[in-house]
Every structure is written in C-alpha cells, then in structure tokens.
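Morning!

As promised:
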Amino acid sequence: MKRAVVTVIGKDRPGIIAGVSKTLAEKQANILDVSQTLMGTIFTMSMLIDITEIDAQFDDLQNSLKQTGEVLGVTVHIQREEIFNSISQI
Amino acid sequence: MDIKKINETIQMISEEHFDIRTVTMGLSLLDCIGANGQQTAEKVYEKIIKKAGNLVATARQLERDFGVPIVNKRISVTPISLLAGNSDYAGLLAIAHSLDRAAAAVGVDFIGGYSALIQKGTTPSEKMLIESLPEVLSKTNLLMSSINVASTKAGINLNAIRKMGETIKDIAQQDPLANAKLVVFANAVEDNPFMAGAFHGVSEDDAVINVGVSGPGVVKRALETVRDQPIDVVAEKIKTTAFKITRIGQLIGTLTAQKLGLPFGIVDLSLAPTPARGDSVAEVLEEIGLEQVGTQGTTAALMLLNDAVKKGGVMASQRVGGLSGAFIPVSEDAGMIDAAVAGTLTISKLEAMTAVCSVGLDMIAIPGDTPATTISAMIADEAAIGVQNNKTTAVRVIPVPGKGVGDEIDFGGLLGRAPIMPVINRSSEKFISRGGHIPAPIHSFKN
C-alpha cells in the first residue's frame, strides 16, 4: 500500500476538516487515520491516507489540496509517508 | 504514525531551512574520447544529454513527493584533462563549451569537472587546461573547475601552485566573479557532489547519483534547546540532528538513483550554509557560545561540530563520501560575512579553522593588488594543512581588481556577497619562486 501524510496548519475556523476531507474524497484518496489538536487558536491536523490507486495523480492531488488550503486560509502539505519513517528509523 | 515525528519533520523543512543542497550525477566521459577535441566535444554532449536528460525532472518530482527542496541539480564529470590528450587548444575549448551547452540543455545548475590532477606532475593536456582557465571560466556559465596540486601520498607540487596563483590573477583580469568557479585542492576526493570542486573520479561507476545535504539552520534550532548545558550534551544534540538530516539525504538519493536506473553513490555529510539568515554555520558556532565567529574558541567549537556531524551521519547513511564536514565559505554564510566585516574573522583564523573542518579558504574576496605569489603561498599553506593531516583542503579566493579592504563584492544567488578581507602584505615571492616539489610527509609511507 502506498500512503501519504496530509498536514494542515492554520487559524481555527469552521469547515477545515470538512473542506480537506471533501477534496480527498473527490480525488478517491481513502483516509486511514486522523489526528487533530488545537494549540491555542492554531488548528493542526495530520491525516494518513491511502494513495495506492491514485499514485499516478499525486501532483494533481497535491495541487487540489493546496487550492483547498488557500480557500480555507490554512497551509496544507502532502508528503509521501517514507520521509517520516526514514528520518528516525534505520 | 507518531504525530510528534510528523510535526518535527514539517518544522525542519518549513522553518529551519532544511534542504537537500544538491543531487549530483557523477558521469564518466572516458568513453567519449574521439579522434580529436572536436569529436570528443560532440560525444561529450551526446552522452550528457542521454544520461542526464531526466535528472532535473526526476529530482523535481521527488521534491513534490516529499516536500523537501532540492536546491541544486548538478553533474560532475571525469577530469577533462584526461579526455584532452589528443586535443589542440581549439579542441579543448570545444569540449568546454560543449559541457556548458549540455548542462544548460538538461537544465542543471552547474557542471563540474573541468579539472586536472597534478599533485605530482603535469602532462601537456593538463598544462593546456590550466592555461585555458581564464578564457574558459570567463566565457562559460555553468562550468566549474578544480585543480588538485597536492596529496598526502605525492606531496605538494610547488610548480603547480605557482602557476595557479598566476592563473587566478589572470582570471580576475578577465572576470573577477569567474574565480568563484575555480577551486585549488589538496587531497581532492573523487565523489564530491559539491561545487566548485565536484568531478567524477576514474575509479567510479559509469554514472552514479551522489547527494549533498544541508541544514545548519536545523542544527542551530536544536542547539537552542540545550543552552547552558555541558559541551558533551551539545555534541550529542548535533549527532542526533545530523542523523535525521542525513536520513533524508539517503532517502532522496536512493530514490533518485532508483528512478534513473543508476547506482546510488554516497551521501556527503556536509553542513553547507546559504546566505539566508538562519542557515549559517557561523550562527551554529555562536549558538555553542561564541559572541562572534572568529574569536578565540572558534576552532574548538568547529572541531566539535564537524566531528559530531560525521558521527551522526555515518550511521544514518549506507555509504558516506565526498567532503563530509562543515563548510565555511565566507560569502555564502551571513554570520561569516558579519564577522569578516566586523574584523573578528580574519584569513589567519580561517586558515586555522580549515585544519578541523572541510574544506578550506573558501569564497574569500581579497584586494585586487594581492601579488600572485601571495595567492600561491596561501594555496601552499592550505595544501600543507591537508597533506600533513590526511584531509582535503582547498583554496577558492577571489582577488577583485580595483578594490581594497573595506569594499565588497556581490556574487549573487547562493554564492552571496563578500567583504574584501585584508591579506598580510609581506612577500612570499622567493619561497614560491623556488618551484619544485615539497616531499610527501613521512607518515604517508605506510606500506
């Protein structure tokens, strides 16, 4: 399975999770795990998603998430999972 | 997956200037030697296009996939003097321009390897290559040159050093900025991905991917969490941070190689600064406890930094190579520039620092009226440090015609800006004019 991590950071407001999830659903990315916290008024969320079926459209998904982030006023990153594992494991 | 781990990675990249400094394709051109220079030039162009055509696109895709900036994509090639044995001068120029055009065509930032290894003796083609440097470096854009004039095994070629002092002055007359594209080495390494000194050694594979990591900003941030603690805590902190930085280099390098169907070479564990604030080796040293880099204690702090980076990186990488150490290029490091302007950092102190880190007197602007023999003597001093200590050292100084101490020169981009630094104005001419060869040190006879 190919997986990626979506991270969202920005000022809290209604509709962030809905907005990001909607984009993921439209692009057929399956959400495997979600973790969300508020640090003061800063909203942070990490999502683990399955991109096995849509691997070839990674750039397209990345652009869509970036646009969604702009609409919602938050920063959205998507990175393949390997980087997070490799950084602290051998 | 651990959220802390995710946040830490995101922070490293977005706030602490972590990046992969370079993905460099090492490429052998030994199979490109034609019947004459012009033929060689054609074959060189074809091979670079064929082998490196997808390098930039592949690296860009990995940048998007992992959200890690890869600042430069580069190519290093076989030392060109080895290809030019049957070339005349016009043929050699054709090869140089062919390299420059090929680099532009595949979209890389630099191509390195307009080089000669003359630590012991000089062949006619090597002599010709050195004589072509003022013309070639002032008329090409992306081509970088390195000349190795000393090694622990062969000793120090003083004739070559004398010639290089004169050559650097000649280049300055043509174009002062062109000297940023030339480095004079002792103990040059064959798999260095960093410029200007990258070339692809003859013992290497046909084509290979090498990676140079960066990240002084990440190290500085990490050290901010251990203020006022004993120095061994600092060393540990640098080690663990270097480990993480190197892991990303290893990942990106492996994947680039895989996608291009090439073997992965090495990760160069260097801390390379950029002129951006917060991405400075000087600031790391200051965080360790120096008011300004260049003051007493700088050499000790740098030795610790350099060693801890290696210890952290070695475990994180499958294969380590290149220069692997902290870089101290003056013009490319905001903190070094400040210290040089303030007079805290002098060339003498920088020379001492080069004994404990990679690589040498790097990107230092000096007065335009500095005699060629003084530049040669600076090279000889650096070579002596390298040869005696079994390490790579180098000189990349930039004499700026018409300018003196107090003036400044701007290189633009990653190369930054540099204040003209004072050089001791007592002559070394009689020493350099002796010529000949400084014998290899006794501890090089190990067999």
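The mean pLDDT of chain B is 94.

Hope this helps with the figure draft.
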